[in-house]
Amino acid sequence: MSAASAERAARQPSSVRRVVVASLVGTSLEWYDFFIYGTAAALVFNKLFFPSFDPLVGTLLAFTTYAVGFIARPLGGIVFGHYGDKVGRKNVLVATLLLMGVATFAIGLMPTYETIGVWAPVLLVALRFLQGLGLGGEWGGAVLMTLESGDPGKRGLNASWPQVGVPIGLLLANGVLSVMGGVTGDDAFLSWGWRVPFLLSGLLVLVGLWIRLSIAESPLFQDVETKQVKAKAPIVDVLQRYPRQVLLAVGARVGVDVAFYLFVLFITTYVVTYLKLPQSYALNAVLIAAACQVVFIPFFGSLSDRVGRRPVYLAGAIGAAIWSFAFFALLDTGSFPLIVLAAVVALVLHAAMYGPQASFIAEMFPTQVRYSGASMGYQLAGVVGGALAPIIATALLKSYDSSVVVSLYATVVLAVTVLCVLVAKETARTDLDAGDAAFRAGVADRSGPVAGSR
């Protein structure tokens, strides 16, 4: 361990905990904002913004507007990643949280197709695009703030905490929507009840901003700034010197994304629209499964510190591919306990991938370009993974009237993830300070990709 690494390991635990809490709270709120859109798209947006279409077609169109957020995420990752590597992680995280909160609050005020016609879906797409920009910049900053703080031997655990923001955000989103659905009834929920979770975002974001403004900048970035060795054009350096790492990050991420959105979002369409079961079956099953993930994501993140990122990651990917067939078979029973079982096992397997994923991807890049590189790899995967998964799954279900083809789709994409994880190098023991020094040496002589950057 280098002297700088030892110094970070000796930092006050309370200081590291503040960073972890700030990243976790902010990321949870960002994902709450993102997920309430996805769940609302599955439940009501087809009726409110695409009312003249067949239910499955309307849902397909609603998911298309949902996908716009994923298309915007790489752009958000590039823009905010650039500034995160230039002006610091903390400042960018404040900006992304504010952008996401304003966009989500505005969706809660949106007039529907019945009121303003075609302008309703147009405005919906524009606000969804802003949501995607904010989330695209959020992930990299939150992960790096935790990864670059504290004990280097606990990077997997520390970086997994922002990942926990995903199930917490999902819990908040589905929980609030479920409560509103139960309190208002179907007609009132369709009329105004769906708006409440979006409007609630305004209050939650203010809390998140207050917490984030109270923490210090990442010590690794402070070190780069003090030594005046920041990258002049981070995104250019990433594209010129780390294209292999970006491609491996995309591949390692894409199967995780597809599996997740099938397990937590497409389940609503399948259970409610295809099986004609109560929407509470899907919502409550996902709530229970997400609660399990809150425990298992940091567990697998910590496990990856001890046995390596790749073994944990691979176990989750292979398990998720196999489970995708059992998943739909259990849904088809129509039994609520078995639907819960399907969702819980699915998200535990997803946690085995998602726990080590943040550190695995971030450790591929040196500090000077880590925000840009990690964000690019992570968010590009979202376009071909999460953005298309609900659309492809819904189209396959409509065309073949069978869940087997949906499971085959998930298996093929997860096979790509398995291959990329196998090709990538283990990163758990990477000395980040050595990678930073190698980057500086590479900048000095422009001799090509830096061998020690991983």
Present the secondary structure layout.
Layout: H1 3-9, H2 13-49, H3 55-87, H4 89-107, H5 113-116, H6 119-147, H7 155-193, H8 195-212, H9 219-226, H10 234-241, H11 243-274, H12 279-307, H13 309-332, H14 336-362, H15 367-384, H16 389-400, H17 404-423, H18 432-445
Helix pairs in contact: 2-3, 2-4, 2-6, 2-7, 2-8, 2-11, 3-4, 3-6, 3-15, 3-16, 4-6, 4-8, 6-7, 6-15, 7-12, 7-14, 10-15, 11-12, 11-13, 11-14, 11-15, 11-16, 11-17, 12-13, 12-14, 13-14, 13-17
Mean pLDDT: 84
Secondary-structure-based class equals mainly alpha
Per DSSP, the total helix count is: 18
Span between termini:
15 Å
Shape: globular
Uncertain residue segments: 447-454
SS elements, strand count: 0
- Rg over CA atoms, rounded to whole Å, is 21 Å
The largest pleated sheet is described as:
none
Estimate the helix proportion, in percent. Answer: over 70%
Indicate the proportion of strand residues: under 5%
SSE order: HHHHHHHHHHHHHHHHHH
